[in-house]
Design goal:
This protein has 265 residues and is α/β, with parallel strands linked by helices. 34% of the residues lie in helices and 24% in strands. It binds adenosine-5'-diphosphate and magnesium ion.
């Protein structure tokens, strides 16, 4: 057996981390030449862990998420989910974007079912599942409404329900609350925490808000300016469930302060 095969076998054992980036880089090919957007970077996320990634604009956060989803392939290095290489879009991954991008001509309920329809795995029993998810995000009453009848926060909750409809092991969220007003954003943050606690997914959450990262995450990863590398990792031990009053504690303030200092030069 070649050493490579032995390594692959070891990597796919039960102890393999949920999601792992092993020494990856990503270089875009542009008309003006090659542009290294990310890495080298090594990151391992445990099953059920909530990992937040923060970093300056353009440092490669969205690139990192596209790599995790299989939409992009790393230029060098490997990405594995439970030891298996991530290549091509995957069914066991859910995505939530900055804009919910709902289909305006479909009802809320139909929008939630969209990923199953696209993957051609829709069954009539999935209607109930969509109902359950809409209840979980507090939108039962709006199932038959159209997106334009909903506020921005409600549309984003539809996006979250849609991201969970195929029961992915891993939820990838790219600045999902960035377009929301401050109050809605805080509420959504607390709601996302309860959704995560109820669904036990692994979450990789991109944000440029330090407080949002700290209130949500088990671990906050800080990236440098592009090409993004990990410059700091912070384990957040604030007890759960966390709520808005957790944000008023000295512990919360001192963590945010420590993280903020990383960006002051
Ligand atoms: N498809 C692409 N082609 C070329 N360059 C890209 C592409 N997508 C992103 N980039 C560049 O890669 C860098 C990282 O982008 P991105 O991952 O979107 O950063 P972030 O999400 O942290 O703002 C930026 O310099 C951006 O201009
Ligand atoms: Mg981005």
């Amino acid at each position: 057996m070649s050493p490579d095969v032995a390594t692959d076998k070891a990597a796919s054992s039960a102890s393999a981390p949920g999601l792992s980036f092993e020494d990856i880089t990503l270089t875009y090919r542009t008309r003006r030449g090659l542009h290294q957007a990310l890495g080298p970077l090594t990151l391992r996320c445990d099953d059920g862990e909530f990992v937040a990634v923060i970093g300056p604009s353009g440092c490669g956060k969205s690139t990192l998420l596209k790599l995790a989803s299989g939409l992009l392939t790393p230029t060098t290095g490997h990405i594995r989910l439970h030891g298996k290489p991530v290549s091509g879009p995957r069914r066991d991954v859910g995505m939530v974007f900055q804009q919910p991008t709902l289909l305006p001509w479909k009802t809320v309920h139909e929008n939630v079912l969209m990923p199953l329809k696209v993957m051609r795995s829709y069954r009539s029993s999935d209607n109930e599942k969509a109902d359950r998810l809409l209840a979980m995000v507090g939108l039962s009453k709006f199932a038959q409404n159209y997106p334009y009848e909903l506020s921005g926060g409600m549309q984003q909750r539809v996006g979250i329900a849609r991201g969970l409809i195929h029961d992915p092991q891993l939820l990838l969220m790219d600045e999902p609350f960035a377009a929301l007003d401050a109050l809605t954003r805080e509420q959504m943050t607390i709601e996302l925490q309860s959704i995560w606690q109820a669904s036990r997914k692994s979450v990789l959450f991109i944000t440029h808000s330090i407080p949002e990262a700290v209130i949500l995450a088990d671990r906050v990863i800080v990236l440098s300016a592009g090409p993004g590398r990990i410059i700091h990792e912070e384990r957040i031990r604030i007890p759960r469930p966390r709520d808005l009053s957790s944000m008023a504690t000295p512990e919360f303030a001192s963590i945010c302060d420590r993280l903020r200092r990383l960006f002051v030069h």
